[in-house]
Amino acid sequence: MSEYQQMIFPNLAVNDLAASTKFFTELGYERNPQFSDDTAASIVISDHIVIMLLTKEKYAGFTKKKIVDSTSSSEVLLALSAESREKVDELVDRAIAAGGTETGEKQDHGFMYGRAFDDLDGHTFEVMWMDPSVVEG
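Structure (tokenized):
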């Protein structure tokens, strides 16, 4: 019997669904057509993380709150782990090449390394690696 593995589905309001979908597929992630249409794109980050890119109109259907302008306000920081320092650099460099913007300063603490980028709509993704021997204690 397998243990249930909880998943997370961050929902992000985007200005241009096609452009945002292209951005994430250029990072190497796949669009799941089963849960995508002209108002939403399901972007598979891993077996347990799926980002839902939603048009602002679709996003507004899930909340009564004002949708923030993510290029000038921050509501959430999304942190993604990477398997090595090189993989951190690889992902952030791909994001920049796809039209994203590097944000913040590179963090290098020896046992932990990270960089961050903003996607086309200003959502911040922090990509980090931690030495497994430190994590294991």
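The two ends are 29 Å apart (CA to CA). The longest strand covers residues 101-108.
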